[in-house]
Amino acid sequence: MATTVRKAGLVGGGVIGAGWAARLLLNGIDVAIFDPDPEIGRKAETVLAGARRAWQRLIPAGLPAEGKLRLASSVEDAVADADFVQESLPEREDLKIDILARIDRATRPDVVIGSSTSGLLPTRLQSGMAHPERLVVGHPFNPVYLLPLVEICGGAATSDATKQWAADFYTSLGMHPLHVRKEIDGFIADRLLEALWREALWLVNDGIATTEEIDDAIRYGAGLRWSFMGTFLIYRVAGGEAGMRHFLAQFGPALKLPWTKLEAPELTDALVDRVAEQSDDQAGGTSIRELERIRDDALIAVLSGLRGEDYGAGKTLADYARAVMAKLPAAANEVDETKPLALHETPVAADWIDYNGHMTEHRYLQVFGDTTDALLRYLSVDADYLANGGSWYTVETHIRHLGETKAGDRLTATTQILGADEKRIHVFHSLARASDGACVATAEQMLLHVDARTGRGGPASGAPAAKVAALAKAQAGLAPPDGAGRRIAMPGK
Ligand SMILES: NC(=O)C1=CN([C@@H]2O[C@H](COP(=O)(O)OP(=O)(O)OC[C@H]3O[C@@H](n4cnc5c(N)ncnc54)[C@H](O)[C@@H]3O)[C@@H](O)[C@H]2O)C=CC1
Ligand SMILES: C[N+](C)(C)CC(=O)CC(=O)[O-]
């Protein structure tokens, strides 16, 4: 199996295939995609543009160089030289079995083939393949480029090595693999989603609630708490200090009451019309693309919030961002170290703007923190160095706000080293608006080298120590920047 995936072959480029393309490309993997839809190029580029925008805001510290997208002329052309294949064909078992057999014939036998099916059994999907051991379900969630969950389910012939490889690979893309222990139709998540959806359709069918009222019942209540704790942990907490046992004793008996229905209502023309008309009213003329943008922005807000908590999907994101940072290449060798270094730039995202209409204060710290991360990457603080416990922590920051910046502005950070020793780096970052070069903020920081395993300060070592010393020497002749060493005080004090 491939140790590094450089090229991915995608078959089917609809909602899910295009979402996979975006996630793979943003991870620096080249993608060849086959879809007979003549509009595939435009559709895939549209999804990619949305994903790019979302990722710049979700991981502003920087991303790998984007992979290249190629529109393939056939299934075979898409997969022939791929190191990994993901099938996202329409949910039809006969079509998937047939095309998975073609993919199997056209790829190297060691290439893992993932299927995006949301409910078909992998044992049946692999039935026409000569190498069925490399077929695994990797069931994603829409939008694939933002939601981390991917359900992994093997069929009878799938090897354990394939399942493990797929889990590792999807993790490397920033996803959270969930192993489905037993092969069942609909896996885990869609069983839950369908149960809710069946009930929702009954409530519309019986005239109890409109589509909007049902969505409100979710988004103002349980939906908010599901996003970080799910059902069981939330109900444990709802049991009070006695926890789950008390919760089950109190609310378990109601499960036997005939509240919910196991059979979905018949999708009669009347019910389809009612659901579609109510859904149109609910959308109020907002286009699907605009709804996608609202959905993506809200997901970014939730994921960013959870990242701050280092919890649930936020932990997945934080781990991924750390892994990306450790892998990003240091800046090019031809950097002139005798001048302040330009190592980081970022657009100002719409949700960084506050009620005063400009970038809110804590976002400046975020941008300066990302700039410090870029400096550490430049100093060769890589995955190995971090794994050995070496890192610099920021122990003091002084930010000056000198100008306003608005959504869409591009900001460029430069970094001057004011001093350094074996443990400390004294840095001065300046943040300029790219359009007119105006300096909008500065940050002076003291970084302390720490052994992350003990939490104690200590001397840097290896390549980072040598690079800090060389950089500090190269910049020693620079004049101190305006504002360096400034303290906060009332005028004249
Ligand atoms: N839409 C969703 O919410 C989710 C869908 N899935 C699964 O992902 C798969 C794809 O679903 P969607 O993207 O939603 O469907 P879709 O209808 O948006 O896309 C399917 C694409 O396959 C293309 N196609 C048809 N025949 C083809 C062929 N012979 N070769 C290559 N491409 C072909 C179509 O032109 C279309 O672009 C299904 O298995 C579905 O169950 C999984 C998770 C969520
Ligand atoms: C509707 N669906 C069954 C295809 C949905 C999924 O499989 C997952 C999702 O994104 O909701």
From TrEMBL:
Task: Show the Pfam families listed in the entry.
Answer: 3HCDH (PF00725), 3HCDH_N (PF02737), 4HBT_2 (PF13279)
Localization of this protein: Cytoplasm
Keyword terms:
Cytoplasm, NAD, Oxidoreductase
List each copy of the 3-hydroxyacyl-CoA dehydrogenase NAD binding domain by range: 8-183
Give start and end of each 3-hydroxyacyl-CoA dehydrogenase C-terminal domain. Answer: 186-254
Give the GO terms filed under biological process for this record.
Answer: carnitine catabolic process; fatty acid metabolic process
Keyword Ribosomal protein in annotation? no
Q: What is its EC number?
A: 1.1.1.108
Q: Name one GO cellular component term.
A: cytoplasm
Q: Its principal location?
A: cytoplasm
Spell out the InterPro entries in the cross-references.
3-OHacyl-CoA_DH_NAD-bd, 3HC_DH_C, 6-PGluconate_DH-like_C_sf, 6PGD_dom2, HotDog_dom_sf, L-carnitine_dehydrogenase, NAD(P)-bd_dom_sf
Outline what the protein does.
Answer: Catalyzes the NAD(+)-dependent oxidation of L-carnitine to 3-dehydrocarnitine.
Assembly with partners or alone = Homodimer.
Q: What is this protein called?
A: L-carnitine dehydrogenase
Organism source for this protein?
Sphingomonas lycopersici
